Structures are given as structure tokens and as C-alpha cells.
Amino acid sequence: MYPALIIIDMQKGIHSPKLGQRNNPEAESNIHSLLLAWRATQAPIVHARHISRFSDSVFWPNQEGVEFQDDFLPLSHEQIFEKNVPDAFAHSGLERWLHVRGIESLIITGVVTNNSVEATARSAGNLGFNCHVVGDGTFTFDKTDYNGILRSADEVHAMSLANLDGEYATIIKTREALNFLTP
Q1: Phi-psi label, residue 111: left if phi above 0, alpha if psi -120 to 50, beta otherwise
Q2: Could you count the other beta carbons within 10 Å of the beta carbon of residue 48?
Q3: Cβ distance 2 to 181 under 8 Å?
Q4: Number of domains the chain is built from
Q5: Which InterPro entries did the record assign (predicted)?
Q6: What are phi and psi of 112, to 5 degrees?
Q7: Which of 14, 12, 17, 24 is nearest to 157 (CA)?
Q8: pLDDT truncated to tens, each residue of the chain (183 aa)?
Q9: Which of 7, 34, 74, 129 is the most exposed place for a label (fewest CB within 10 A)?
Q10: Residue 116: CA atoms inside 13 Å, Cβ hemisphere, count?
């Protein structure tokens, strides 16, 4: 059985200038190539969509930012899970949906690396899924650390992936993810 492709928060709001400087400008292209490959093999696809509880969020309901980006519009047979917290497993039914279908392996991609991607991958690993995060299929933004030092998006991204690798998930590249579709 093919792993499920989980695409996290590929919504229009992620391009808001208020989020700041980002890394990995190739991420959307990589995610889109994964989506097309999963569709071509009819492998399971899950779209996670963030519906924020905070009115200042780029994902606040009933505004353009909450909508899926055009390249990531789910097809009618693809599963959508809405979430109000970073973790796509929390209160969403995702775990049950995967278990009912006998899906044990996951390929996780999307945004934001150190937020929803990391939270979802941690839960996936803790729940016993064989989890892979596509490092070049995620991106993040500059962030000030706890000591007040501004860290670049590349630094935040690398640390987030390091937090996951070997503990909750295996970090892979897009080309490696595509190999999961080879019979």
C-alpha cells in the first residue's frame, strides 16, 4: 500500500507579507510535483486546512487567506481535515481515517516547518506511523528565539527538521518521496 501524502496548510494566507522572510522558494513546486504524482498513482491524499481561532491570523475564516492555493485545490475524492491548532491529528479524525484504511506510512509536506509540519510529524511518530517529512517540500519564516536573537528562516527550518529526524520522522527530499510510489 502506498503511503498517504499529507499536505499541510497550503492556503493563500501563507503568502501574506506580514509573515516575514521565508526560506525554500522551491517548496511549492516540490509539493505540487508530489501532489501530481500521488494523483497519478491514485495513492491516498490528505489536505489539512487551518481555520484559525484568532481574528488577526492569515487563516481567519471567511476571508481569502483561508482558501486553498489554486495549485493545491483538493479534488472531490481527496480527504480534507480542518484544524484549529498546528497539529493535524488533534481533534480532527485524521488518525482514525488513516487506521480505517490500513495506512501506516505518511509523507508529510506543507507549511510551516517549525509549526504545523513539526507538530503533525511529532504526533504521527508518537502514534506509531512510519513518518517521512519532505524537507525541501516545507518552508518557514524568520523567527526570534527565546534569547531575543533573530534566526533566519533557513536556521529555523534546519533546527525544526533536526528536532524531528530519527525521533519522530525521517527527513527526505522530494525525489526520495517519489520513490515510495514505485511498485
Answers
A1: beta
A2: 26
A3: yes
A4: 1
A5: Isochorismatase-like_dom, Isochorismatase-like_hydrls, Isochorismatase-like_sf
A6: -95, 140
A7: 24
A8: 899 999 999 999 999 999 999 999 999 999 999 999 999 999 999 999 999 999 999 999 999 999 999 999 999 999 999 999 999 999 999 999 999 999 999 999 999 999 999 999 999 999 999 999 999 999 999 999 999 999 999 999 999 999 999 999 999 999 999 999 987
A9: 74
A10: 29
Cβ atoms of 20 and 61 within 8 Å: the answer is no
Residue 66, CB-side half-sphere exposure with 13 Å CA sphere: 16
Q: Is residue 67 a contact partner of residue 59, using CB atoms and an 8 Å limit?
A: no
Q: Which backbone phi and psi does 138 adopt, to 5 degrees?
A: -140, 160
Q: Which domain holds residue 155?
A: 4-181
Q: Is 133 in contact with 164 (CB distance < 8 Å)?
A: yes
Overall pTM > 0.85:
yes
Nearest CA-CA partner of 78 in 115, 49, 118? 49
Secondary-structure breakdown of the chain: helix, strand, coil percentages, each rounded to the nearest 5: 40, 25, 35
* CB-CB contact of 32 with 172 (8 Å): no
**What are the beta bridge partners of residue 144?**
150
CATH number, domain with residue 28: 3.40.50.850
